[in-house]
Amino acid sequence: MTAADTEQVHGPPSDSERSTHRWTLLAVSAAQLLVVLDGTIVNIALPSAQSALDMSDASRQWAVTAYALAFGGLLLIGGRISGALGHRRTFVVGLAGFAAASALGGAAADPGMLFGARALQGVFAALLAPAGLSLLTITFTEPRARGRAFGVFAAVGAAGSAVGLVAGGLLTEYASWRWCLYVNVPLALLAVAGAVFVPRDRPAGGGRLDVPGALLSAGGFGAVVYAFSEAEPHGWGSGRVLALLGVGAVLLGTFVAVELRAPRPLLPPRILAHRARAGAFLAVTLLFVAMFGCYLFMSYYTQTVLGYSPVEAGLTLIVNALAALVGATFVAGKLHGRARPVALVVPGLLAAAAGMFWLTRLTADSGHVFWLYLVPALTLTGLGLGCVLPPTASLATAGMRGHDIGAASAAYNAAQQLGAALGTALLNTIASSATGAYLAEHRDATPTAASVHGYTGALLVGFGILAGAACVAWALLGARPHAASASSHQTNLPSPPGR
Known about the structure:
Elements: H1 3-10, H2 15-37, H3 41-53, H4 62-85, H5 87-106, H6 111-139, H7 143-174, H8 179-182, H9 184-195, H10 211-234, H11 239-261, H12 269-273, H13 275-305, H14 310-316, H15 318-335, H16 342-359, H17 369-397, H18 403-441, H19 447-477
């Protein structure tokens, strides 16, 4: 059944349905902006916060790590709670808690208060993210409306990191670092106001929480995310990093074994067992590995080599955000239900790979860098990002019901979180190693030339990751699917067994 056929069957949406759609999309998009924005906005403000609160160099990373650990470690639990309590109720609780935690962090009187507030932000973000994606899934069922909604949702997510860098620079420079946290309060209240008009959904029922699974998943994901964050300053060979990775692997392996036997698992194995859904998770994980490494180097390169201010460096990434907006809304959003997901995901990954490869041509002596290198590369990577996120988000939740919607939404967000953490640590380590090797081999090389060599070497690895992701997506998504059921929302993803 095509999108047009579906529209004829259901008829055009009523005025009340259109109003519900608008408010749901507004509320969920605002929440998505909050979650993504807070991953980067504090980075720019951190030097000012460190000076104001007298943080040590060793402890300052916790302003970023506390959020990432709580968010990544508790996502699966957040998805389970969302299904049990109802997605709208969980969404509103998450927004209110996030606003309160942000206000607490903005008013921090010492480092411990700031770190605790950031951890609380991560806790409530772990409720918000899966609940928001679940609300989109159950609200937008008509293919064209669903495509537009997921396009906007993905565009906000793709642009959030760049917006965070720009907003962080502007707020820190012209107001105070505290406003990088206070700004979340009006955004959260706006989303709560929109959520009031979202119809209540029916909770999936009680049932006891899979406590062993919850503890194992939180410990395992937390250990892995922490290991990735520690690998950046200490290196992958350090005893701390290797120990954390080992603990994380053991805990996650035990988690899988427990989930296979649990009567009400936190993450039902059938969610990951479906070939197309697994392809979506892998594609978005590898995309975030490459892209977050790219964002890191753009920040370093524009400020240390080109001499941009933090605000100018952030504004440069707006090119990427605008391209992502175009790709998500005018390409992926328009083609949803008309083209198979593989026709968007694979070209999107290849476009992002081409943009990253273009950046590897940079040298310390390159001229007209902004127009000849940055604009084409950021446009291609942005378009690729915008084309990949909507279909993968839709595939992640298609055909899901009850608790499975929240679990699938949480798993999709966890894939992004792990990819971002791994990409930042992995590619930074590669860049540092390449820089050191270049200086050792070229005694007369300038620090700038060595840094650029390190950046481009890491970006070449990012290109390889994206090219590999395209091959994986083609293999897992390219096979001709079975006929999609109506419950799969026209994503060419059959309903999971046992439904």
